[in-house]
Amino acid sequence: MNQTPFVFYCRPGFESDCAAEVQSFANACDLAGYANTAPNSGYVRFFLFDEASEQVFFEELDIHELIFARQWFWAKAELVELPLDDRITPILEVCSEVAMAKQVLVEHLDSDEGRELSKFCKKFSTPVTITLEKQGLIHEDSEFQLHLLFLATDHCLVGFSPVGRASELKGGILRLKFPKDAPSRSTLKLEEAIQTLMSGKQRKAVLRLGHTAVDLGAAPGGWTYQLVQHGLQVTAIDNGSMDKKLMQTEHVIHLKENALAWMPEKPVNMLVCDMVEKPSLVAKLMAKWLVAGKTEHAIFNLKLPMKKRFQEVNDCIGMICDELEEADIDYFWQAKHLYHDREEITVYFRRKIKNQSH
Ligand SMILES: C[S@@+](CC[C@H](N)C(=O)[O-])C[C@H]1O[C@@H](n2cnc3c(N)ncnc32)[C@H](O)[C@@H]1O
Which domains does the chain have, with CATH numbers? Predict the structure, then answer.
């Protein structure tokens, strides 16, 4: 038996949550496997017991269905002690035996050690891509992406992922520029959530001039800022103070109310919530708004200071799903441990019109 691992990247410190989630995904596919992790490494290796199971796993995995994993691929070879004057030849040998790729992602982990390889990976990307192109191993129509994950400058995992079911971004990380006039850094969390969790169609339908939103736990206004940028009229609920410049836009009404109790009379187009509260309380609140039809779209954070984060997330999302089902409401949801999230994940729920596809 010589099984190669499936590799999943996550935020350092979240390896056991990522492993628990991958294990649960495999169980749901009736596949047996086991995870190998090291604390703060920023990744998980997952092994299945036979080739047939590996094939099924490869066909089932979808990054959009995983919360704690940012990126994944199926490793085909682990190259160690790569000659520093010619790393490309051994990589080429593996690639030519496997498949053509649409693009090559030269990646490193998000751990302290991994980030030290960032410059090297950037530099290596161009020559390796040119060589692969020359060898006819890069093709626009290929269904696969090639991953070169460097663990050291002479140590590389080579593998493949299917286009569309893994991230097309290096390391699965969406890098965003902090807008200078935003009131807080957490503005990037909502920007990333909007781009990652909502489809282009949904963004267009909801984020438009004149639409309305509520921001629960809004101060100082980083999330409200994002909504205002899209032209929405925002009701910001928080006892704390809102950014003065943001208030001058006249797109924001600030109410010093308890966000756990307050509800608008008329429904709004979108609800966002970044309150520091127990995740089960936030989940209950989101279910209340969605079931009452006070919003069609909700983006919220679940803060996760506890140990068993995957279990907590499962319980909270399961509770919202149960409540919507009990009320006979169709829905779509997706959740992600975003790059800009720390001890929290971001969730998107949408009430669907009955029988409407995603
Ligand atoms: C992480 S901060 C929000 C940051 C904000 N999203 C931003 O981008 O600037 C959490 C906020 O939730 C507010 N908060 C917590 N519990 C609340 C409650 N029950 N009612 C209203 N606001 C609450 C706090 O006052 C705090 O300002």
Answer: 6-172 (3.30.70.2810), 187-352 (3.40.50.150)
